[in-house]
Hints:
With 233 residues, the chain is an alpha+beta fold. The protein is built from four helices and 14 strands. It has helices at residues 26-34, 72-84, 175-183, 221-232, and strands at 4-8, 11-17, 44-49, 56-62, 67-68, 92-97, 100-109, 112-119, 142-146, 149-157, 161-166, 193-201, 204-211, 215-217. The strands form two sheets. Strands 1, 2, 3, 4, 5, 6, 7 and 8 form an eight-stranded mixed beta sheet that branches. It has a six-stranded mixed beta sheet with strand order 9-10-11-12-13-14. The protein is globular and about 50 Å long.
Amino acid sequence: MKFTKMHGLGNDYIYFNCLETPLNHPEELAVRLSRPHVGVGADGIILIRPSETGDFRMDMYNADGSRGEMCGNGIRCVGKYVYDKGLTKKVQLTIETLAGLKTLFLSVEQGRVDQVTVDMGEPVLEPEKIPVAAAGTRFLSQPVTVEDTIYLVTCVSMGNPHAVTFLSDIAGLPLERIGPKFERHPLFPCRTNTEFVHIEDRETLSMRVWERGSGETRACGTGACAAVVAGVL
């Protein structure tokens, strides 16, 4: 079995070229390979497949085997993979995802991709579409109780669900304990990614993220976008 390990800002995935040969049981494989020490170790696996609507299709599976609709860092690595492997010569690509078509812009230096920019699309704010089990047109700075602590939460979809809360301290946050409780809170029928954000200044945010199905990760592209949207709101 051939694979490529890649990361975007430390958000790491195991990539499989499935353009000609399908990969069987990707859910089980994601669980087995994502384990540190006894597997390859990753936040999940990503399959690169043919697409009828875009240049390529990205199928993402989290470390627990669940499907992910979209991954900002993961899709950037897809762009580098297909260009550097000679699968395309385009520097503007459309990638099919469960969250729709996403456009990538590749910066190429000496025949290799050194940077990828993604058009992440417009954020979705309606609770029903995120989804959040709440009425109204937005879920903005609403109180959510986790472990007897009230957090003010703003919910956004960037093709996948996010709950963002702004805190004065995130370094000492017991994320391994409270992250799963946010992820599986009854408010979120499809579970959620959660961003714990500290405002450094009006142009800088610090963020820790608990990703649905993968736990704490070193970065999250859709989460970074969701944090900015919540900050603007």
